[in-house]
Design goal:
heterodimer, A: TIM Barrel, two-stranded antiparallel sheet, 13 helices, B: 210 residues, alpha/beta, Rossmann fold, eight-stranded mixed β-sheet, 7 helices
Chain lengths: 361, 210
């Protein structure tokens, strides 16, 4: 297995819980700057301690993740993270200009000498409110935007685009990606539709903040669809995103978690938005998404594979289960507890004690 | 709008069926008569669309183009925009090369002449393609992203060989793009016919409210 560290650039100051959009009056610029510095240091350590990738993501109007444009953060990381690949997981494709996405990822691939992983996301439901897009059109916009991006990365001559949602009279991006034909592509989604699309388009699939059981079912569907499309996904084609906190002992890890700031849910923080998105066709045939994020105890969340907590040995056991039941070859690991030195120690333990043991899984 | 006029004209011993509708500057449309009707109707709202197709099997592109030029004279058409679909691309290019002053723009929809690897099928096509570098008429080449007969990857070779070629891909359309996505193709074609190369610069407004 491979592992990626996902430090979300969470705001370290005090903010109210369960609110989205979070009023910007709570944002102290100096605290925000310190929070970003902390994140960059966590990524630097991940690179030093052998993580295969580091992950940045796009979220809006929240203290959970102050990277509304993950490309900017990835650009900064290109100068700090010297070895690991930088996984942009990713731009929320349907609400962005796809040509701009193609340009920025190609820039990053050039700046990193070909170390970019390109995740194409449909985003959490609240993102559709951010830039005022209809969530029911998200899948169609996603599919078209992805095709524009692939062609922008491979067409040697300028070309125009007469689409359903996008229109350009001419596209010819500079620079082109270093990786040929383009950086490894992933998309996210537990829904059957996502698995089918990824399989038909021969791209990797990621499962985020879900359960092992749900991801295993979705991964099996993805593999079956891929076989029908004439190819066999490898473990590297499947990402499982799950929060981690590692300590020297299980007891220490649980004690740390009891002192960690509360989790922030983007998808359930605003009931009007949750209901509005659910009323659209956003979730497709994956109705369980609506309730999957319901609050559970830490022990429940560990058992269902929603978070990995414990000593290195315990974490290895949990990772083994993910590898076996989902077939995932890549663990994408958000930091489950932002606790200063304890978090840095968790990164070190994962890199030095967990990674060497999960490599062979 | 008046109903289409239909008939038959001839030139240089060849007979052509024609179907004419709309009004304004002439657009000579080479393709099967009556195909993609909505697309042609939309174009006919701003132009005099003269659909033409050879009756029976057509000879080589160069001789068909000569015959076509003679036949057009019988309709009183001396200057025109030219639109050609699939296999009629070769005739249209030959006509544009031979009658450069008569053809004011050329639009190729799903052209079948140069393949995805830049090759052509016949020696006659090779001779035609070798002349394309001299063609200066504003040109629009349109391919559907799902077209397997005229694959979108062929488009780059038209741009390689033609000085004034604008290439546009129509998303989610196959070879019959004019029937699958008529409004999308019509917007593109009418804008190009109206403004030629200036169509690169958007003129429609994004203003929401005054």
């Amino acid at each position: 297995m491979k592992a990626s560290l996902f430090a979300t650039s969470r705001y370290t100051g005090a903010t109210p819980d369960g609110v989205w959009p979070l009023p910007s009056k709570y944002c102290d610029p100096e605290t925000a700057a310190r929070s970003m510095d902390t994140t960059i240091e966590q990524f630097r350590l991940a690179d030093v301690f052998g993580f295969d990738w580091v992950t940045v993501a796009e979220h809006h109007y929240s203290s959970f993740s102050m990277t509304p444009n993950p490309m900017i953060f990835a650009g900064a990381l290109s100068q700090v993270v010297k070895r690991a690949k930088i996984a942009v997981l990713g731009p929320t494709l349907p609400i962005l200009n796809p040509v701009r996405v193609a340009e920025e990822l190609a820039m990053l691939d050039t700046m990193t000498g070909g170390r970019i992983i390109a995740g194409m996301m449909r985003g959490t439901p609240n993102e559709y409110v951010t830039y005022n897009f209809n969530p029911s059109e998200s899948r169609a916009r996603f599919a078209e935007a992805l095709e524009i991006i692939r062609r922008a990365w491979t067409e040697p001559q300028p070309f125009g685009w007469q689409g359903r949602y996008y229109q350009y009279r001419t596209i010819s991006i500079w620079p082109q990606p270093v990786q040929k034909p383009y950086p490894p592509l992933y998309m996210s989604g537990s829904s059957p539709e996502a698995g089918e699309f990824a399989a038909q388009n021969r791209i990797g699939l990621g499962f985020a903040f879900t359960t092992i059981a749900a991801a295993a079912k979705a991964a099996a569907h993805y593999r079956a669809q891929a076989r029908e499309a004439g190819w066999e996904p490898t473990p590297d084609d499947v990402i499982y995103r799950v929060g981690i906190h590692v300590a020297d002992t299980d007891e220490q890890a649980f004690d740390d978690m009891s002192r960690a700031p509360p989790r922030i849910s983007l998808t359930t923080a605003n009931r009007s938005i949750t209901a509005g998105v659910a009323a659209s066709s956003y979730y497709g045939r994956d109705e369980s998404q609506v309730t999957r994020t319901a609050t559970r105890t830490l022990q429940d969340r560990i058992e269902t594979g929603q978070v990995l907590v414990g000593s290195p040995e315990t974490i290895v056991g949990q990772a083994r289960r993910i590898r076996k039941e989902i077939g995932a070859g890549i663990l994408d690991c958000p930091l489950a507890a932002q606790l200063g030195e304890r978090t840095l120690h968790s990164i070190e333990l994962f890199g030095t004690k967990v990674l060497p043991l999960i490599r062979e899984l | 709008m008046n109903p289409p006029k239909e008939g038959e004209i001839s030139g240089d011993g060849m007979r052509f069926r024609y179907r004419e509708h709309g009004g304004g500057d002439a657009v000579l449309w080479l393709g099967e008569l009556g195909r993609s009707p909505l697309l042609r109707e939309i174009v006919a709202k701003q132009s005099r669309v003269v659909e033409l197709a050879p009756r029976g099997a057509a000879p080589a592109a160069a001789s068909t183009a000569r015959a076509l030029a003679e036949a057009l004279a019988t309709l009183g058409i001396t200057r025109f925009d030219l639109v050609a679909e699939d296999q009629y691309a070769a005739v249209a290019l030959a006509l544009a090369l031979d009658r450069a002053k008569a053809v004011t723009s050329l639009t190729l929809l799903a052209p079948v002449l140069i393949d995805a690897k830049g090759g052509v099928a016949t020696e006659a096509d090779e001779a035609l393609v070798a002349r394309l570098a001299t063609l200066e008429v504003p040109l629009l080449a349109v391919f559907g992203t799902k077209d397997t007969l005229a694959p979108p990857e062929a488009g780059r070779h038209y741009r390689d060989r033609l000085a004034n070629c604008n290439l546009v891909l129509v998303y989610d359309a196959g070879h019959a793009m004019g029937e699958e996505r008529p409004e999308a193709v019509a917007e593109l074609v009418t804008d190009f016919l109206r403004r030629r190369d200036l169509f690169l610069v958007r003129q429609t407004s994004d203003l929401l409210y005054h």
